[in-house]
Design goal:
two-stranded antiparallel sheet; two-stranded antiparallel ribbon; elongated; alpha+beta; 36% strand; 22% helix
C-alpha cells in the first residue's frame, strides 16, 4: 500500500513539474470544408481568400502553438447592405444554410 502511495505522489509531482506531458492532443480532423459565404445576399461575392499559418508562434505549458490568420475579400455588386457571413461546418453544410 505504501509503495502505491509513493508512486502516486511521484506521478503527481512529475505532472506538476511538467504539465505538458498530461495535456491531450486532439487527433487531426479531416472533413470536407468550404469557405465563408454571405447568407442573405446574392450581390456579395467572395473575391479572394488568404490563409497564413504561423507555426510555433506561441508557447504555452512548454508546447508550441500555431496561429492562423485568414483574410477574406468580398465585393458588393449591388447597393449598400448589412448581412451575415456564414462559416459552414458539417451540420450547417448538410442543412444547406
Amino acid at each position: 500500500m505504501k509503495k502505491k502511495f509513493v508512486c502516486f505522489i511521484f506521478l503527481v509531482l512529475v505532472f506538476c513539474i511538467y504539465p505538458g506531458i498530461i495535456l491531450a492532443n486532439s487527433p487531426p480532423l479531416i472533413m470536407k470544408g468550404d469557405t465563408a459565404f454571405p447568407i442573405s445576399s446574392d450581390n456579395i461575392k467572395l473575391e479572394s481568400e488568404v490563409i497564413k499559418i504561423h507555426y510555433g508562434a506561441t508557447k504555452r505549458y512548454g508546447l508550441l502553438g500555431h496561429e492562423i490568420e485568414v483574410i477574406f475579400n468580398f465585393h458588393n455588386t449591388g447597393f449598400e447592405t448589412d448581412l451575415d457571413i456564414g462559416f459552414p461546418n458539417v451540420a450547417s453544410y448538410a442543412q444547406k444554410l
